[in-house]
Design brief:
With 247 residues, this protein is α+β, with helices and mostly antiparallel strands. The protein contains nine helices and six strands; from the N terminus they run αβαβαββααβαβααα.
């Protein structure tokens, strides 16, 4: 992994007009078939160029994501009301769950989700990463996770500018501090705004470790100006949601 990161990402801050991304097969296969395509022998090149008006592009993306998040919140309000009722009927405690996460430039913010775990989930253990078949997840919470309805409140985070629709998933301060010490280049994730979904969520399984997810997060960061990558991440995220697969 170290060699992969050294060759791909250490020049992320350097100026330049063009960059080259190498993908195995075609780009849809890269996303759809298997995450190993990144590490395989690359068979052809996909070109993109850094936009000349980068600040204008960033403004357009931020404005567009804010508008989309507002529209989705409005459309999803009936489903969100049903989520609140379902949580109240099946477990004790608040329906909405808030937690501190680390965003762009290491800035802390409060993320919102529908609660999918028991209230005492970390009472005895302290912070623990969740995993597939986590026994701390309630029955209704398992449904919320499979359908990703638990993530809907994060549309508010997009509206207020803490997050984007696409980007590395934000992590808790406890794990950020730990991974910074254990995983080389982990701090580079903080160069961009975190997202509701990302390349790591599309390509990795739920139980993937921080090292594996970091490869995909940094690949996204290096090529964050590729519109093809941006929209394909959204497309395959939507497909996973419709198939009720864990992202």
């Amino acid at each position: 992994m170290a060699q992969f990161l050294q060759t791909q990402f250490l020049d992320m801050g350097s100026p330049g007009v063009g960059s080259r991304v190498l993908f195995g097969g075609n780009m849809e296969q890269y996303f759809a078939e298997n995450a190993a395509a990144i590490r395989a022998t690359f068979s052809f090149s996909f070109e993109f160029e850094r936009p000349t008006f980068e600040s204008l592009r960033n403004f357009v993306v931020a404005f567009g994501e804010t508008a989309i998040a507002a529209l989705l919140l409005l459309l999803a309000s009936p489903a969100m009301l049903l989520c609140v009722i379902g949580i109240k009927l099946t477990s004790r405690g608040p329906s909405l769950y808030k937690q501190e996460r680390i965003g762009k430039n290491g800035k802390a913010f409060t993320i919102y989700k529908f609660r999918s775990m028991r209230m005492d989930a970390e009472e005895k253990t302290g912070p623990v990463l969740s995993w597939t078949a986590d026994p701390r997840v309630t029955a209704f919470g398992n449904f919320l996770r499979k359908t990703h309805l638990d993530e809907l409140p994060q549309l508010w985070n997009v509206m207020v500018g803490d997050m984007g629709l696409v980007g590395p998933r934000p992590e808790r301060p406890f794990f950020v501090s730990r991974f910074r010490n254990e995983v080389p280049y982990y701090h580079l994730r903080e160069r961009v705004k975190p997202g509701i979904t990302g390349l790591a969520q599309v390509c990795c399984g739920y139980n993937a470790g921080p090292e594996e997810k970091l490869e995909f997060d940094l690949l996204y960061i290096q090529h964050q100006h590729s519109w093809s990558m941006y929209f394909l991440i959204l497309y395959y995220t939507a497909r996973k949601i419709l198939l009720a697969r864990t992202v």
